[in-house]
Design brief:
It is a single chain. By secondary structure, this protein is of the alpha/beta class. The chain has a domain of 182 residues: Ribonuclease Inhibitor (Leucine-rich repeat, LRR (right-handed beta-alpha superhelix), Alpha-Beta Horseshoe), CATH 3.80.10. It has 9 helices and 25 strands. The strands form 6 sheets. The protein has a 14-stranded mixed β-sheet with strand order 1-2-4-7-9-12-13-14-15-16-18-20-24-25. Helix 3 links the parallel strand 13 and strand 14. It is elongated and about 95 Å long. Bound molecules: 2-acetamido-2-deoxy-beta-D-glucopyranose (9 copies).
Amino acid sequence: MHPMIPLLGLALVVVPCLSVSNSSDSLWCQLCSCTNNGSVVDCRQAGLGSLPLPDWSNPTNFTIVIFDNNTISHVSAFPERRLNASVISFRNNAITSIENAAFKYVGGLKEIDLSYNHLSSDKFTGDIFKGSYVGGMYQPLADMEILRLSGNGLHTLDPNLFEHLPYLRVLTLDSNPFGVIDHGTLIALANIPKLEYLDLTNTKLREIPQYMLHTSMNLLVLNISYNNLEDIPSEIGYAHKLQHLVLDGNPIEEIHKSPLVPTLRRLDLSSMPKLARIFSRSLGNFTQLRELVMVNNTNLYKIDKDALVYVESAEPEIKVWPQIKKLNISDNRLAWLDPSFIGDWGKLDEVGIGRNPWVCDCENNWFLSELMPRIAQLHPEEASRLVCHDPVEMRGRSILELSQNHADMRCLDYYGNQPENDGTVILFTCIATLVVVLIIAGTLAYLRRETWNFAGGRCSYRRAGSLEAIYHH
Ligand SMILES: *[C@@H]1O[C@H](CO)[C@@H](O)[C@H](O)[C@H]1NC(C)=O
Ligand SMILES: *[C@@H]1O[C@H](CO)[C@@H](O)[C@H](O)[C@H]1NC(C)=O
Ligand SMILES: *[C@@H]1O[C@H](CO)[C@@H](O)[C@H](O)[C@H]1NC(C)=O
Ligand SMILES: *[C@@H]1O[C@H](CO)[C@@H](O)[C@H](O)[C@H]1NC(C)=O
Ligand SMILES: *[C@@H]1O[C@H](CO)[C@@H](O)[C@H](O)[C@H]1NC(C)=O
Ligand SMILES: *[C@@H]1O[C@H](CO)[C@@H](O)[C@H](O)[C@H]1NC(C)=O
Ligand SMILES: *[C@@H]1O[C@H](CO)[C@@H](O)[C@H](O)[C@H]1NC(C)=O
Ligand SMILES: *[C@@H]1O[C@H](CO)[C@@H](O)[C@H](O)[C@H]1NC(C)=O
Ligand SMILES: *[C@@H]1O[C@H](CO)[C@@H](O)[C@H](O)[C@H]1NC(C)=O
């Protein structure tokens, strides 16, 4: 007999024995599906119209209880000593009301997800999160760290909403119709001393109230993407520990200045169809920035020289660059980029510049010597996809090949300050030179069996008088 067979037999006997002692034969696992050895109860799309379930007879320990995608409209209080669970999720229901102290008997509850329900400001009050009444006062829900309220009908918060949730770290309020952070909401937020992550995405905000970040002492991440902000809010300057600011999808047109936030490590400025230009030194106040992601700004045509520079002293002028490690400026409308944008291109760990209409002329010549070798090293695939967009003669040429061939990109005559026939003369001279060059090149190529690189030639491009106009307006 194979030595493994008795072992296998033992396992077959032991496994069913173990599963008897799991989450018991509770109604939960009959109505819903229990997975991960019965630690996760998945009641998604189970046709549940109300809670709690009719029979809670057996006490149960679960890790995650999911009621998503049902038609629950009212949540009654969970009964005493019946359920332990770290996470309870009610996403995509029709909840309008929740009983007071509904969660006080759920042991070990860390996260409640009430996203995509019909909660409205008048019925959603702090009493819902009351704990047990001990010694003449309500105890807090001391394990609660995460509350998700995305996609409801909240336009203000009960000032006492978080009274019984003093250890909350993560709060998502995105996709609610706030419009403005009013006084009540501000007081509510000020009552979460340990808040680290606040999501106010898509809440129709035009401004950030002055002291919001002053009171949230421990905030690390603020997501205010897809609002109606027209500038980088100066109120961010009151933050104490903010590390990550997300401003994607706001109608910002130009960036001239920003508040001083020396703690900021990552800034997201993406998907802003109106953003056209980022001015010199305008982002310099984020002195410790490490990651900058500005992608999919389809009108962003210019990032000025020194946009990230902080001027430490004016006389004599001392400029300081943040030590950027990750830069992504893909999918914008950038044609030229100044090398002084980043202090040291060699120190980047991640860099994306793809899908911009880069002009292969002398202004971008530093791409070939400085930028491309770094991109080729970090992301060879992406490097090989980078091509010149202009001038017409260079369109589609691989920037990586130009770099590897040590080519020299010529200057464009884009100011059109020469008489019209100059162009013809230059063109004629060019053709003549080209013919000579071609003959020499042909001979050389024959001798060295190498292809000649045109961009290495000495010929100026044909006049492209309108390039500036194309890119700048
Ligand atoms: C189920 O429990 C057994 C024994 O405790 C363990 O070996 C196994 O990895 C668990 N399976 C899952 C999916 O958690
Ligand atoms: C124990 O959990 C498993 C799922 O891992 C389930 O199939 C089984 O029915 C449970 N046992 C009892 C007695 O409910
Ligand atoms: C919940 O866990 C605690 C200990 O952490 C335990 O005393 C209690 O019996 C558990 N409740 C249920 C319903 O299993
Ligand atoms: C739940 O877990 C706790 C501690 O981990 C244990 O004391 C209790 O008996 C468990 N309850 C059930 C019903 O398994
Ligand atoms: C739940 O509903 C949402 C919104 O209707 C849908 O996007 C999602 O796929 C559904 N999830 C499941 C598991 O059915
Ligand atoms: C900010 O919100 C957007 C939109 O909901 C989301 O895609 C992104 O992951 C969020 N970012 C962070 C850091 O939370
Ligand atoms: C930098 O921050 C300081 C202090 O908040 C402010 O006075 C200055 O205008 C800011 N500079 C820029 C270029 O944003
Ligand atoms: C790019 O931005 C546009 C708005 O200008 C938005 O509709 C689109 O979803 C964004 N694309 C990606 C991939 O984020
Ligand atoms: C930059 O962002 C684009 C999306 O616009 C993504 O496809 C690309 O992988 C990113 N590159 C890097 C280096 O992160």
